[in-house]
Amino acid sequence: MSAASAKGPPPGAPATKASAPDANPSDPTAMNQRWQIRVRNLNKTFGPQHVLKGVDLDIERGKTNIIIGGSGQGKSVLMKHLMGLLKPDEGQIWVDGVDLVPMGDVEIARLRRKFGMVFQYAALFDSMNVVENIAFPLLERYSLPREEVMERVRDLLRRLDLADVPGIEQKFPAELSGGQRKRVGLARALIDRPEILLYDEPTTGLDPIATKNVDEMIRRTADQFNVTSVVISHDMASTFRIGDRISMLYAGKILVTGTRDEVLASHQPELREFVETSGAVVMGPAANPPRPAP
Ligand SMILES: Nc1ncnc2c1ncn2[C@@H]1O[C@H](COP(=O)(O)OP(=O)(O)O)[C@@H](O)[C@H]1O
Ligand SMILES: [Mg+2]
Questions:
Q1: pLDDT tens by residue, 63-74
Q2: pTM for this structure?
Q3: Ligand 1: distance of its center to the CA of 64 in Å?
Q4: Is residue 118 part of a domain?
Q5: Which atom from ligand 1 is nearest to the alpha carbon of 71?
Q6: 93 or 140, which is more confident
Q7: Pair 197, 228: CB distance under 8 Å
């Protein structure tokens, strides 16, 4: 069985729901054409520290969804919940209408094949060459013929403009440039044909030019591979350049969520300060000033 045929709707997603999308768009438990992931009332504590305090978040299918927020606000913790790497204390996370919170390890592992994760510093294995690094998720999950694995790896090397680098297949991470390493990390995230790509601060520590290159890579990947992207970022220039939807995590909740224009017109003082302090983006006039308390 090929990896592709091992995919399809996860068990527990009733065919009737999947074939009748948006029957009730407000029902987060229904398969929904627009929202691929729906998070409700997510709570997570670590010991005495209450990190997520009732997060509600919708991730739009096929779009670039950006989560912004200050350092230590719980962005990485939230992202880990989306693919079932952390269990919440309370709350629901529906992926295509199926709640992953009550799932056991086997079911979660199967659901996780919908996801690809791009780590901050590519997180390649130093002792493996480029081919071994990219193929790793396939080798871990399936026993595919070597030719098929190589075909998929080479296809990605071509599509990510790495095929022309001499000897690329046998190179080790230490022999690659920063940009090449990022693309190899992306290839590894894409090798099992995910529907959803998660990026945790992909531009941290990069100069403005390299940041722009990564932005282009994210946008191009979204179009070329037709994926839903979820990007954690604290880079405002980058956020407003590539984000279709932007959500701000603040004090354990999603403070603001919306399209670029909606967010730029937000009245929330914490959001306005966060965006304006960056100096990279100018907020518009607040379109929705808070109503005075009755
Ligand atoms: N596995 C863990 N155990 C205990 N505390 C954690 C763990 N993961 C994250 N935290 C804490 O949760 C808070 C939010 O972390 P994180 O999500 O990494 O923030 P950021 O928004 O910078 O990504 C931090 O105070 C961090 O120390
Ligand atoms: Mg983080």
A1: 999 999 999 999
A2: 0.86
A3: 24
A4: yes
A5: 22
A6: 93
A7: yes
In a domain, 12, yes or no: no
* Model confidence band, residue 294 (pLDDT cutoffs 50, 70, 90): low
Output the pLDDT for position 209: 83
Give domain status of residue 152, yes or no: yes
Residue 285 in domain: no
Q: Does residue 100 surpass a pLDDT of 90?
A: yes
Number of domains making up the chain? 1
Q: Ligand 1: which of 50, 51, 234 to mutate, most ligand atoms within 8 Å of CB?
A: 51
Could you identify the atom of ligand 1 that is nearest to the CA of residue 232? 23
Residue 60 sits at φ, ψ, to 5 deg, of -85, 130
Instruction: Give the chain's mean pLDDT.
Output: 87
Give the ligand at the shortest distance from the Cα of 77: 1
Segments forming the whole domain that contains residue 115:
35-277
Q: How many residues does the chain have?
A: 294
Greater model confidence, 17 or 51: 51
* Residue 207 half-sphere exposure toward CB, CA atoms < 13 A: 3
CATH code for the domain in which residue 134 is found: 3.40.50.300
> Looking at residues 157-176, what average pLDDT do you find?
93
Nearest residue CA, atom 20 of ligand 1? Answer: 72
* Helical spans, DSSP H, in the chain: 15-19, 75-82, 105-111, 130-141, 146-159, 178-190, 208-225, 236-242, 260-264, 269-277
